[in-house]
Amino acid sequence: MKHLLFGSTALVAIGLLAPAAQAADGIALHIGGRYMGAAGIVPSEDFSASSDIDNNDVRDYVFKQDVRVYFEGESTLDNGLQVGARVDLRGQTDTEDQIRDVYAYFSGGFGEVRFGDTAEAYTQMCYLVPSASGIFGADSPNFNFSNAGIAGAGATNGTCYGIDSNSTKVVYFSPSFGGFQFAASFTPDNTEDTRNTVNGAATRLRNDPGQNSENLGLAGTFKHDFNGVSLVAGGGTSMSFNKEANPDNVSDARSYNGYMQVGFSGFTLGASTELRDNFGDTSADQWVYGAGGTYNWDAWTVGLGWTHGDYEKVIGANGVGTAEGGFNADHDIISATASYALGPGIQIDGVVEYSDYHSRNAAGPDYQGVGAGLGTLITF
């Protein structure tokens, strides 16, 4: 009876909307994307003996590139409702995730609803520590030239990671009310590319080791201009209510972030932080925070940023460390960036960065390094 009632209600709703919701034109397909490429050097670096890495084991220069292409179709119906879909494709072969985003959206005076593989509300509303570059920086850079990841937890610090990446979910973005906007997302299962069946289950299995499921993301941002001074402030939380196949009874994962930026007379100053609790199969906690600033004049932008990562129970290189012990670590990154706009959508970026990864345990690895790079960002 319940299913019949639901189906009848849905048919009635569709019937009421259909006459007023015809599209004036068909879906118009747009193609866009961006290209990033960079060359970098690491002229000075030092690995501790406990890292089991020798300086001669690592090449001191590198070429990198990252390409994305998106396809987006949208139509505005006669009643003003905007309906569209978007597919983001990686421009290079990726065996794990060739398609990054794929979702449909419905937008109008009520806000916007997205359904599909896309980032959670928490991540999409987040602001990083300011950087002059769209490629480099002290906070979640696309490219970096530190080899700290070989010796320890990771090569970079980040303040906008969240919990469930681009899993299949529903996301809602509110309209802006006096500069304030909020968003919410729900992810049933931390898995991308969800289709009809997975290993014979028409829904989803509940016993994926350590997977964070039933995830709720909440975020809010306030933006306003005050007589030439711009302000952005906000934050959010990402919460998992089910850690699957959890023999160690680790508490559910949580992530919290906050940020603020102030802009005036070409300057942008800002700070950002993220606290992550109970990640993975252990009760590992991570706290990253940082600050930075940029200055823009004509086609030039320069910036300086710093982030500090405090990592608890980090699993080290070559499997060193256990869920019961591991070693705690600190990671400081200082990044000086510059960017020159050659033309609309075309820029040349540069970076000089210092990375200091330090384990608070005699058995843990340490790393120090200085890197520099030059790259380009082209949007199309």
Written account of the structure:
The chain contains three helices and 16 strands. By secondary structure, it is mostly beta strands. Mean pLDDT is 85; it is low at 1-20 and 316-325.
Entry keywords:
380 residues; mainly beta; 16 strands; globular; disordered N terminus
Oligomer: single chain
Largest sheet: 16 strands, antiparallel, barrel
> Which word captures the global form?
globular
User: H/E order of the elements?
Assistant: HEEEEEHHEEEEEEEEEEE
Structural class: mainly beta
- What would CATH call the class? Mainly Beta
CATH topology: Porin
The portion of residues forming beta strands comes to over 45%
- How many domain modules? 1
Total number of beta strands: 16
Give the proportion of residues in helices: under 10%
Distance between the termini: 52 Å
